[in-house]
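Database export, one record per block. Field names are fixed; values are copied verbatim from the stored entry.
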Amino acid sequence: MREREANWRWLGGGLGLAAAVRLWALGSRVVWFDEAVSLLVARTDLRHIFRAAWDDTHPPLFNWLLGLCNSALPGEWNARLLSVLSCVLTIPVVFALG
């Protein structure tokens, strides 16, 4: 039982550290070219997102989710928040896989 509690503490600490590292100075840099392209594609309709994904290496789900997030919370910092959340939430998934 103690080992399980220790594992949960490590997971919580890892999540906190990952979030702190990712959120620190998140909005202090200008938008990079690939971020700008993703934001432009995300502002279009779903059909255009799929068409843009045909010529790109990235699947359309990220751009679609980015468009949803950007419509709810517009702004440069909020646009980067989706990437932060996906990176931080990957940690418990990997933890659960063992």
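Remark 1: Residues 49 and 61 are 9 Å apart (CA to CA).
Remark 2: The mean pLDDT is 89.
End of record.
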